[in-house]
Each structure stands twice: as C-alpha cells, then as structure tokens.
Amino acid sequence: MIPALTRLADWSARTPKRLWLISFALFFTLAGSWSAASPLGSSPDEHAHFIRAAAVARGQIGGPQVMVPHTVAGIEGQFAETGVDLPRWYGNLPTVHECYSWRQSRPASCAPSLGNAQEIVQTTTAAGRYHPAYYLATGWPSLLVDGPKGLYLMRFVSALLCSALLASAVVTAAEWRRRSLAVLGVLAAATPMTLYMAGMVNPSGGEIAAGILVWTALLAIVLSPDPRLLNRRLARLGIGGLVLINIRPLGLIWFAGAVVFCLLLTQRRGVLGSVLRRKALWMWTGLLGLATAGALYWAAKHPDNSKIDIPDSLTAGVAAKRTMGNTDWYIKQMLGFFGWLDTPAPAFTYLVWMAVLATLAALALIYGRKRDLLAMFGMLAAIVLVPVAAQASEAERIGMVWQGRYLLPFAVGLPLMAVLICATRASERGFPWRRLVGFSVAGLALANGAAFYWVLRRFTVGTKGSWLATHAHWAPPGGWVFWTGVYTAAALAIVVTALMSDRKPAPPQLPDLDTPRPGHHARVPEPA
C-alpha cells in the first residue's frame, strides 16, 4: 500500500502547478469544511469582522467613533468602535452566539434568527481600526447574496485566500531534495487552529497562512540556495510578506522575527551575496517597504481610544506572572481551542501534535550545528517570552487579552525550522526518516479529524450530549455526517503529499578540462 501511495504522491508532485492545485483543493476542503460546519458568529469576534467586511465592500473604509460598553475577562470598559451603515439584520450578529458561547453543554440550536430587515441603520464594529485590505477581499460576496448565505460565502472566500497561501508553502517545501521531510513541516505548522481560523471571517486566518509561507520561503532561500528557484522563492516571500504586514498590526513584527531567525541559520558563504545581487529582491523590498509605511500610517491614524477600568492590582509584574503561568494554555490555543475559546480540542489531538513537534525539535537539536541550536533555543524562548512581554507592557491599559493564535504566525516557524535543519544537516542514513514522516503525518491526520468532529459534536448536541451525535439539536447545512466525512477524507488525502519520494542527489559536475589560469585551480562544485 505504501508504494502505491508513494507513486500517487510522485504523480501529484510531477509538476509544481499540479502539486499547487491538488494542495489548494485539499486545504480549501479542510478550511471550507470549518466554514460550512461552524455556526455563524461562533468564532472569536467574527460578528465584528462580518460587519467590517460588509461595510468596506460598500465603500465605508472608516466611520464615526462610537463608545460601546463591554465586559472582557470580568473587566468593564467603554470600547471605541466604528459606526457603519448596513441593513438592520447585521445589527443582530453581535448577540446571535451568546446563548451557547461559554455554555459548552448547550448546542447552537438556541441561536436566534438573524432576520431579513433591509432598513439601513447604523451598527458598530470593533474591527473598524483594522487595515481594510483583508475586508475588501472577503466582503464582496455580501453585495451579491444577502443574509446568512452571503456570510457563508464570505467565509469561503477567506478559506480560498488562505488555501492559496498554504498551497504555495507546500510547493516551496517540495522543491527541497528531501521534500517529504520538508512537507511534513508545513503540515505540522498547519494546526487545526490554523485551518479553523482560515475558514472564518477573521484576519487571523490569513495572517497565520501567510506566516507559514514566509517561513517556508525564507528557510528555502537560506538553507537550500538554488539560483534557478531564487526569483520564485523571493516572489512567494514577497506575497506572504505583503499579506502578513497588511493584515494585522502585529504582522510587521512577525515578519521581522522570521527574517532575523532565518538569517541566523545562514552558514554557507556567498548565499546572502547572491540574494542581494538579484533585482527581484530589491523590487520586493521596495513593495514591502511601501506596505510597511502604509500599515504604520494606517495604525497611527486609527488609534484605540477605548477606556477600560483596569484594577490597580493588575500591574505589569502581575500580568507577566499570570501570562507565564498560562503558557500551556496558550500553546493549546495555537493547536486548537475553538469557539469563543470555550471549546478545546480532544486530548488526543494535543498529545499527537505535541509528540510530533517535540520529536522534530529534538532531532533538530541533535543534528543541528551551533547556530542552528541558537536559533532553535531562541524560538522556544520567544514562544514563551513574547506573550509575557506583550501582556506585561499592555495589561495596565487593555487588560489580560492575549490569545495563543496571536503568536501563531511566528510560532509556525518552529516545526518548519526543525524539519529543514534536519533535511540540511542530518545524514539520510542511520535514521528511519521515511518512517518518521509516515507515522507523523498519519497521526496528524487522525488528530485533525478528531478535533473537527469534537468541535462539531459540541455545536450539535453540546459537551454533555452523546458521543455520537445521532440526535443532533443543531446541524450545519448539509448535515454533520457529510462534513465530518469530507473533512476526514481531506485530512487523510493531504497526508499523501508528504509521502512523495525524495529527489535524487544531483550528480557532481565535472571540473573544467581547460587548463586553468596560473594561480587558479579547477574545483568540483557541491550539489545544491
């Protein structure tokens, strides 16, 4: 069976275009299944992003500031939101999830109807300060289809955009000689939370997918230099960087962090010089510079004027201590913590994903060189300490609001860095790499499918309902059985992309037979 799967994988990767299309279709099936099977408004702040996207699609890039009372994590305050003019039914979105969110035993069947009132009224969105690019890309279906169907279409557009970025990361990984190991890194980085957010109307999904593409392209440039592939890798890096920088305020920090750690891994002489001589690099650098200037200008012109009643007891030191204690919770959120952070994935998902990540990190530490070890330990420290620093610096102003998904566009670099260090430094003999890849991707597929069913069960019958949701109180369009089957099939099918046979080493080129110039000696170049 394994040889047959390998032949199928090799067929799928015969050309980059074919591999991209197959990977895109499978990722879209996974993210789109989350889109279709999740109740509207059931993901964090999705109602605000729906409203923002619909408003931007109608040309409302900004709007008047409206102070709205909110309570977050038990802290009351006046949140600065943006007023926009939309059909009245959009105003029902902020409350449609409240009857079951944070009440895990309740299925989503209690959610009220959104209605269809078309009278134009002012409603508010907490996402009004965010850069409009993402919302312009996802909001246009609301102009074509009204009501819930339009909202589902907006989700599918978000899933399409994220799937394109993830498929490009797979193609970049498949350009490595040890491509099965490289693709494993992409699949390990695409956690269930990544796919879940990709299927929602939320800029986090695009931010995480762009982070995976940025890391994959950067690592390929510095660890597997190939002059023939450099321009296309720079293009993928540029596209991923443009999305990452423009989609959320933290994107610029995550992009800079990826660049710093990847430069730390550069050990071959001449790699940076050959990159710096490419005109494509300076073209993309110019575009990224303009995007950075635009993002910073937008952020400066749209500050957060919320007034939150932070208690005096919540000092920077207290926030840092609490954040450090919540590290395991943030890690779980990066792997899969769904709904309004009220629906964790099953323990099986966490155990399998952490086992794969720990194995890959350990192997990278074993086979890596000094600078590789510095980069790996630096990444591990950053994953723990960045939330501590961020929360400590902002807690006295906005409270304890950090979520694991905020760091995920940067943290995806850990599995990618680990597998590509192994692909570069470790010998192909002496360790069963193919077996490691096979067992890892199979485990990840099962863990992924388990997370999807577990979350769907929570919405259909509640956490206290039967394990098999035969008597569903709520069901997504098409039914829960259909979407569970579709998602599981896609999760297993995408495993095949990591089972492709590795490329054969390029034969060494013969030295120049011409007589070398005095003082020069012919040299056999090393294969890439």
Task: Kindly describe this structure.
The structure is a single chain. Strands 1, 2, 3 and 4 form a four-stranded antiparallel beta sheet that branches. Helix 14 (316-325) crosses helix 17 and helix 20 runs antiparallel to helix 21 (480-493). The longest helix has 29 residues, at 370-398. Strand 5 and strand 6 form a beta hairpin. The chain is an alpha+beta fold. The chain is built from 21 helices and six strands.
Topology (SSEs and partners):
Layout: H1 2-12, H2 16-37, H3 46-57, E1 65-72, E2 75-87, E3 120-125, H4 133-139, H5 141-144, H6 148-173, H7 179-189, H8 192-198, H9 203-223, H10 230-247, H11 251-265, H12 271-276, H13 279-301, E4 307-308, H14 316-325, H15 327-336, E5 337-338, E6 343-344, H16 347-367, H17 370-398, H18 408-411, H19 413-425, H20 433-461, H21 480-493
Antiparallel strand pairs: 1-2, 2-3, 2-4, 5-6
How do you describe this structure in short?
This protein is α+β, with helices and mostly antiparallel strands.
Keyphrases for this structure?
528 residues, 4-stranded antiparallel β-sheet, two-stranded antiparallel ribbon, 6 strands, 59% helix, disordered C terminus
Low-confidence stretches: 508-528
* Helix content class: 55-70%
What's the β-strand tally?
A: 6
- Report the portion of residues in β strands: 5-15%
Kindly report how far apart the N and C termini lie: 32 Å
Strand-pairing-aware structural class: alpha+beta
Could you spell the SSE succession in H and E letters?
HHHEEEHHHHHHHHHHEHHEEHHHHHH
Number of helices: 21
Mean pLDDT: 88
Radius of gyration using CA atoms only: 24 Å
Biggest sheet details: 4 strands, antiparallel
Shape: globular
